[in-house]
UniProtKB/TrEMBL annotation:
InterPro entries with a match to the protein in the record: CheY-like_superfamily, Cyclic_di-GMP/3'3'-cGAMP_PDE, HD/PDEase_dom, HD_domain, HD_GYP_dom, HDIG_dom, Sig_transdc_resp-reg_receiver
Residue span(s) of domain Response regulatory: 1-114
GO process annotations (BP): phosphorelay signal transduction system
A Pfam family matched in the record: HD_5
Protein species of origin: Selenomonas ruminis
Every HD-GYP domain range: 141-335
Gene3D superfamilies in alphabetical order: 3.40.50.2300, Hypothetical protein af1432
Protein name: HD domain-containing protein
HD domain location: 163-285
Amino acid sequence: MAVDGRTEDRTKLEHVLASRVNFFGVAAGSAALAYVEQKRPDLVLLSDDLPDMDGFEVLRRIREDERFKDIPVIMMTMDQTQKAEAASIMAGAFEIVRKPFVPIIVVKKVEQVLELEYLHRHLRSEVRRQTHLAEERLASSQRLFEETVMALAKTIDAKDAYTRGHSQRVGRYSRHIAYKLGWTEEEQQKLYFMGLLHDIGKIGVPEAIINKPDRLTDEEYNRIKEHTVIGSEILELVAEFPELTIGARSHHERFDGTGYPDGKKGSEIPIYARIIAVADAYDAMTSKRSYRDILPQNVVRAEIAKGRNSQFDPEFADVMLQIIDEDEDYMLHER
């Protein structure tokens, strides 16, 4: 679109450009703004001198509208000074053409601007397309990771006849504690996956020991304890998620330093493991065992409270106590 109050200049522009582009000319700024609103042209040739308003005012209105601010504008002026050129560029013009026109210069500048606009538009389109593809691949990878983790968690739980769904519940309880603490969604999800895989080391423990209904011997208990180290070594192979090893190795550490495998205490124990430890103990008490049913909620609460500062980090034990108190119908247990 060409916007020029001088009929002879519009006619001259149409003569040199009509055979190359879809040309439309108007004389007034108001008509130009109306056309932009209706048709959104690919390029505007805009005179600084119009009968109804200043050409810079037209340019300002185009630039202020989010829908049209990217339309390239070539300012046309009879002012031959560098100041006029600088004013046009500062106002948001892409180029400047001086009157009287030199036809070949007008043609070349219009072609160059339209070519750049074409490349820019297609670049934006390609960026959007590639971004969409990348997001799809990322989502697909995330789904594959989640499905793999879930499959592993179910494999772990399948070894123990009395802890079906244990890993999933520990993951959910851990995430809920993180939610109560105001952690970000990303941190909550990270903790959930760590909870899902905290017992993965049991893959390396014989089922006969895991499912033994009688009291374990010292040797058998030591084999059970090895699952923390085995799990950590397995998850070290997941280079993209190094934190996974934390939940597997340290969820049996105790706040007073009497846990295993490393005997860490207090803040030496990674924060993720301190949360998983509370969630793990809660699920152990609220799940059926070969020798007992689900413990009553008041008993579970008393045990969590008793474990503050000894087995559990008191901060996370208190959050678990809050969750228990809010669970008035005792819904959080194995089903």
